[in-house]
User: What shape does this take?
Amino acid sequence: MKSIYPVIRSFKFILILFLVTVAFPSHAIVAQDILPNPLEPAHTQSPRSTLEGFLNAMDERFNVTFGKNGILHRYLDSGELFANERELQAAIAKMLKAEELSTKYLDLSGLPPATVDEASWRLSIQLKEILDRIGLPPLNDVPDAASLESKPIKKWTIPGTEIRIGLIESGPRAGEFVFTQETVNQIPAFYQRVKNFPYKGGNTQGMYEIIFVQPTGLALMLHRVIPPRWFFSLPGWTHTPIMGQPFWQWLCIVFVLGFYAAAIWLCHHYAKHRQRGEQSRTKLWTALPSLMILILTPITQYLLGEVIRLSPTLYSGITIVLWIIFYLTLPWVVWIVGGVLAEWIIGNERIQTGNIDAQLIRLGFRLVSIIFAIGIIIEGANRVGLPSYSVIAGLGIGGLAMALAGQQALANLLGSLIIMLEKPFRVGHSIRTSGIEGRVEDIGFRSTRLRTPENTLVVVPSASLVNNTIENLTLRKSWRVQRTIFLKFGTTMSSLQAFKSQVKDLLQDDKDIKGETIKVALNQIGLNGFELIVDYTLSVKDERERVKIMDQIMNAIGNIAESNSIEFGKSSD
Assistant: This one.
């Protein structure tokens, strides 16, 4: 384990660099006088206004950052190592506003919620690249709001293409014309078809290459610690495309995902080390790797999307995998935290670990954890693009199949729940059920363990317990004792009467015997002698005390018989 600590220390520089750059992002809040209007709407009243508004928003995105008068050219021409911070923040603010506005012209309802924010601006750039290469008809030939009044249409297609602008007929955006969902879903494929075609127009030529091929994201992230111009002076071989991504991006991907995996691996080994050193009932340390996954997944997604700026197709694939890992890990963390909270409450309230109240607390937290876990899985499935109703239906079918396959296990679980709620007995009580008698040692979620008088351990399923009569011997308020005493025929009637009278006096003098319950009577005269019934009730609750008192009484009865020269006989059976 010691060999791991130098590795952990080697991450210090990376962590410091992360705090300097990511924790203090470059798009910090800037003065109000340089912020664009945050409430500017998208003009989507007609196909013409949508197409024109989209093109203008994309031109604005390009001009403030990469255009001839944009922040990038001004910085490179200045000869300074670092960019002017105020100018940079102003350009970023304008670019982000134009970026948000441009995505409003797209129908993004078909994208997974987990990727929609990041994928939308990538798709808008690809769409602009497509439009610049295919050529557009004059705007006067595109239907506007006035022409729609005389000749209403629901969809308009750019001539010679499959790119359509359609009317949204329902939902919060009803009445707006936007690039249709089918078009948005096919933008990556359309771009692959036309990316090698020459430009036919547009004011944003080279935008895709600057954003996704050049290390502009890295330059922006690290602009406070590394001069951005250094990133734009990388050797040409670093831009060699491999499977659609420049070589430098593959290096960054390996580094980021390697750091992601290494951090989780280190947490896993550190947790195992702590668990061996601490004899703790909780499993908090086992959650450490999972917690690291929850922390690093959004950070990794941010680095891949905002910093390395992967192409839309690769980014969507990796992001969905990361979010699947995230939403599969989160229920496990909820389960562990629920168990830890249950044990904390049990320890804080000083409840015995094996007590039925402790088991009830554990069961309650487990049920709540399961409910939260199911909700997280449904939300996670929705985030990665799976319909919620399909997930719910799948969980329902899976739950039904499990219920059919484990009916007995479910019956035992419900039986345990009934025992925990109704509390017919507790750990330490002596019970008798279905011919089995013993002291309760443990009440579990499936069965109850009994220690019999023969010192054997009997495991009784909970379903069997709740379906049969349970006699709690410990909770008796009193013990009824019935004994039959046989006397030989040689006993005279006077001796018998004296014996009966003395035994009755003996019982009445005992403070632990209820006087009104005492019965000493001749029950039968048989072939072998007299049959005498001794019946009384002890008011003690403890079984050991009962045995002790009965032993004393029987010894005293023996002494009375001896003093009256009475001999005991045997049953006539």
User: Anything to note?
Assistant: Confidence is low (pLDDT under 50) at residues 1-35. Residues 24-233 form one domain. The CA atoms of residues 341 and 365 lie 8 Å apart.
